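Sample pair:
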Amino acid sequence: MANNGFIGKERFEETFKHQLDENGRIVQMNYLFTNKFGNNENENPIEKDRYRIVWMPGCPYANKTVITWKLLGLDKVISLAQASIIRSKKGWVFGPEIDETDPILGKYESVDPVLGVHYLHDIYLRSHPSYEGRSTVPTIVDIKTGLAANNDHMLIPTYFARDWKKFHKKNAPDLYPINLRNDIDELNDWIWKRINKGAYAAGFAKSQEEYDEGYDKFFEALDIVEERLKKSRFLFGDYITLSDIHLYVTLIRFYQTYYNIFLVNKKRLDEYDNLFGYARDLYSIPEFKEYTKLDLIKKHYQLSTHLRAKFGNEYGIYAIGPDESKWELPNERYKLSKTKEIFLREDN
């Protein structure tokens, strides 16, 4: 593959320039659209066919949103738009997987058929004309107004599970049981800070100190979860909750890309007996598997212009491995359960 489209580290710096602290570290960006879903003033109305989720298959945050949406049957009332895995300079784009340095960009016009825009960022500027940060996925767009409704990836799955119940499918899984909500919230926050952000801190580090800190947090957390899953099929016992979805999307990417790209290479996922069996157990569920695009995940992290720049992939080399057939290997996690059912059911 030719090096067409390769830009040096300035592309990486440009992408995250609004997230740099005084020491040059990349920090978490504040969510721009945070209105809750409900029937009160200043809340997003809960209505059928009013919203559209913008996701990108490579992104773990968008991935957990879409898995939750599908499990609950909300695909019947909220539509889905898929952005390209290759980010343009302006941000997430609807259309071919190309960058603005590709000679055909500008000649190929592609817009989302519902939102009527080529770039997700157009929705952000329509909603906040003075906004200078990045547009992110997932973003939920209000089709009626044409404005962004919410882009808080930590809470969107919670809103779907808690506030959209009247549109859940019959006998939908109860992913957010009332008696576990505080524990689920606490564990989700821990997974986010220690595992997901640990991997990104190592991968996006610009100093040895930053890398070491992220690396240590990531593997210390994985060791804790590995031990927890020794006697428990899922994070809270016999039934899948939102916490399992939060963890799953990062484990998938650890296996597919983080080990090599982010240099979190102490151990591979398949060297953890419990974690890898647990991740395969979840992958075998149709709603998880359908929205786990293994090949697109690898391509996003390896071929995106801003990530190629960070990791020096000048010629756009795309790795063949790891062995994706391992995701189909059988596991015996069911032996840890007292029941064959993997979900609590809302109707019960």
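Residues 178-336 form a domain with the Glutathione S-transferase Yfyf (Class Pi); Chain A, domain 2 fold (CATH 1.20.1050.10).
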